[in-house]
User: Fold this.
Amino acid sequence: MSSPLYREYAEYYDVIYREYLEKQVPRIAGFVEEVFRGDAERVVKRVLDLACGTGGPTLELARRGYRVIGIDASSDMLRIARRKAAQLGLDAEFVEGDMRRLWFEEEFDAATCFFTSINYNLSDDDVLATLRGVYRSLRPGGVFLADTVNPLIRAPEMMKGVTQVWRVQRGNEVILVLDVKRLDESLMLEWERTILVAGPGGVRVIPDHHMLRLFTASELRLFAKLAGFRYVKVYGDYERRERADARRLILVAVK
Assistant:
């Protein structure tokens, strides 16, 4: 977790993902509440949000009345999340930590992991450590949700290499983002990102390179079962139904 993603461009994260935070997060939170009502086997009040970043979904859940703790490996991202919570007057707690090593003594009614963050678990041991830690952290009947890309739909294009370029602005700074993603046959995704920030002081270049592991729906079900969850579904595209053609998968696992 030492990538510049978690340090050097933390201050630009909310600018780069402005549309996701403003438009998609409220929609995703609405779906999450449907899962809380329809799949959890207890009333959800206390929520643990893994890999919370700058707190977008965490704060949206807090705004909807849930008592939320966000955990992330980046102190820089968490500093921004705390500042946003204070500005919005929302009661959310943020702590630094590794999702693979959850240590909370209290139990939660639900846990979440958004924005493909479950894919930072690169090995079988990593993903099982994360899921077993979540399982231990949940009360009986509690539910865990994690969203990810569906490789069976996205693999053909991603194996050819995907390049994305977009431009955003913050005040008198112009920010250009260049992403190059390559997926191999083992579903390991190499992600190279370059951010150029042009402002009054000149141009700043922020490089980033990291790996993610994509999971099929069958793998998500298997890992959740191995971690101890007794009820497992994989929904598609933020709808409470399983879809083979979904571009995004949402693991829903109940303790």
Observations:
- The CA atoms of residues 118 and 146 lie 7 Å apart.
- Residues 18-38 form the longest helix (21 residues).
- The domain at 153-212 is CATH 2.20.25.110 (N-terminal domain of TfIIb).
- The two ends are 28 Å apart (CA to CA).
